[in-house]
Amino acid sequence: MKHRVLSIAMMCLSLSCGGCRSGEPGDKCDLDDASSCQDELVCSTNDDGDAVCQFPIGAECDAGKKADLCEGDSSCVEDDDGTGRCLVGRAGECDESDDCAPGLVCAETAGNEANKCWADVVIRGKVFDAASLDGIPDAHIIALDDESTAVSDVAISGPDGGYELSVPVVRDADGKPTDEIFTLRAGAPDYLTFPGGIRTALPIDASTASGDAPYVISNAVTDIALIILQEGERGRPSVSGFVSSDVRRDGVLVVAEAGGTGYSAVSSISGDFTIFNVPSGTYKVSGYAADVQLTPADVTVEDEPVSDVELADAGDTTVTVDGTIQLVNGGQPTSVVLVVESTFQENFARGEVPSGLRAPRTGPPNVSGAWSIEGVPAGKYVVLAAFENDESVRDPDQAIGGTSIVRLTVAPSTDITVSTSFKVTEALDVISPGANRPEGLTSAPTLRWEDDSSEKFYEVRVFNAYGDEVWSNLMVPEVSGGGEVSIPYGGPFEAGMYYQFRATSFRTPGGMATPISTTEDLRGVFFKSSE
Predict the structure, then answer these.
(1) Mean pLDDT, rounded, for 211-221
(2) Which pLDDT score is estimated for 68?
(3) Which of 13, 149, 150, 154 is the most buried (most CB within 10 A)?
(4) What's residue 530's pLDDT?
(5) What pLDDT does residue 510 have?
(6) Is the pLDDT confidence value at 14 over 80?
(7) pLDDT average, residue stretch 229-251
(8) In whole angstroms, what is the distance from residue 358 CA to residue 339 CA?
(9) Residue percentage of the chain with pLDDT more than 70
(10) Are 206 and 217 in contact (CB under 8 A)?
């Protein structure tokens, strides 16, 4: 018996955890000895500076016990399921959002290497019918960053069209959202996808959020008006699935393509996608985004929705596409984008640009000569220059080189140099309506734009959101002395429809009409307002 007592005593002396203890919650422990605590516990320093056995962050705990039985900045609180867990409170350091107490997310903090738990930032709004103003249920909404990369999961609108979408935002030292910019994309059965056609998504500034539990962004831009499809295009099924790539899953432009026409969606941060309103037929479903090459999936669409379509890594190498532009007649540095050809609309001269397929990839337009787009996956594209509001447009004179629409086919592992050097000229400035954003009007507008000093006449065409040309005046006379040109709009002006006017100036050397410049691709949009 004496030998047994001595052995126990020696074992106790060998422990540095405060005596012969079992390593249970609250027991002293050795920071250098992981075995000094029970398997599910960690040895960590409490508020008093003592090394004790504690529950790790995220572990179940007893909310009735004292707080220092939880590791680090965490304490024992009830989670959303009512279970006691060690979770990090506001301003505490974290590794992921599951570490944070309910209502908080793990967010990057400006000027601080460690992420911290702060109140969530949510976008709240309503998806509604542009004509009736009724809410649209079951619409899918995601948030995108300035590269058109998804930064959120999918929010689905409720019976009244309302939705709420959580977005990741860098915080200042007090946890307030900084000035990050997002845009929204929305789709629903029987409605045109937004953005699309003549409609662009306006930027949402996270620093405008109000409140702090959560921070809420809610304004006119977070409400999304959708335009109902033409009657013969309604009642069509959807195609849904997921991107399973190990390279990237978020922000992939997914296009169901057949006969040169594509129907599209963008994958969420988890890789899920739903393409609405797909006609019956056999399709190749392809995924497009910078730096990822995916294997297309073949699907047949009949009367019912198609689900579980998987887009997996193809294993092939993406390529680089490069070329040059020429700035002429006052053209300013611009950007160059690749549009998926099956989504390109001739009347609008625009289409869907996959995430990252832009030069420069991010930031303001800066291309004035050579340009390069890296990480381009295989597919058929249209190359567009000056495709944003940068005071420049592609030179409209198609009788000279460098002005035609360029199409190219990209194969895996083969870089491409575009032989055409695009000519970019100064745009005609839109005065109204829609100088900076789509403009709501109560009556048909007068179309106004800046005079081109060397013109002899103008052509004006107006398109609706379906891509139809609904009105034109192809002989608007020149204006003497500069200033502005104006003409009353005489076409349809219906509630629930969006319109865009485009003006082109012409000169007449040798009696031949030659276009000089045009208004910008994304300006001049207007709609009938109820107010």
Answers:
(1) 93
(2) 67
(3) 150
(4) 74
(5) 77
(6) no
(7) 96
(8) 9
(9) 93
(10) yes
Structure tokens that stand for 76 in this block: 């024992």
What pLDDT was estimated at residue 420? 84
Distance CA 345, CA 458 (A): 23
Reduced to 3 states (helix: H, G, I; strand: E, B; else coil), residue 253 is: strand
d(CA 349, CA 336): 14
Whole-number CA gyration radius for the chain:
29
Q: DSSP assignment of 303-321, as one string?
A: SS-EEEEEE-B--PPPEEE
Average pLDDT over all residues of the chain: 89
Burial 2-41 (b: 16+ CB within 10 A, else e): eeeeeeeeeeeeebebeeebebebbbbbbeeeeebbeeeb
Residues 325/256, Cβ–Cβ less than 8 Å: no
Q: Distance (Å, rounded) from C-alpha 322 to C-alpha 292? A: 18
In sequence order, what are the residues at sequence separation of 6 or more whose Cβ sits closer than 8 angstroms to the Cβ of residue 86? 54, 55, 56, 57, 58, 59, 61, 69, 70, 71, 74, 75, 76
User: What's this model's pTM, rounded to 2 decimal places?
Assistant: 0.85
- Map residue 119 onto helix, strand or coil: strand
Dihedral, CA atoms, 343, 348, 349, 355, nearest 10 degrees?
-50
Residue 17 predicted with pLDDT over 50: no
- 511: which residues sit within 8 A by CB, 6+ positions away? none
Per-residue confidence (pLDDT) for residue 503, from 0 to 100: 96
Quote the DSSP letter at residue 214: S
Q: Are 496 and 131 in contact (CB under 8 A)?
A: yes
The answer to whether 30 and 16 are in contact (CB under 8 A) is yes
**Residue 46: CA count within 13 A, CB half-sphere:** 19
Helix (H, G, I), strand (E, B) or coil at 65: coil
| Buried/exposed code over 156-188 (b: 16+ C-beta within 10 A; e: otherwise) | ebeeebbbbbbbbbebeeebbbeebebbbbbbb
Please give the structure tokens belonging to residue 243. Answer: 């991107």
Per-residue model confidence (pLDDT) at position 67 = 55
In the numeric block, which tokens belong to residue 398?
Answer: 């198609």
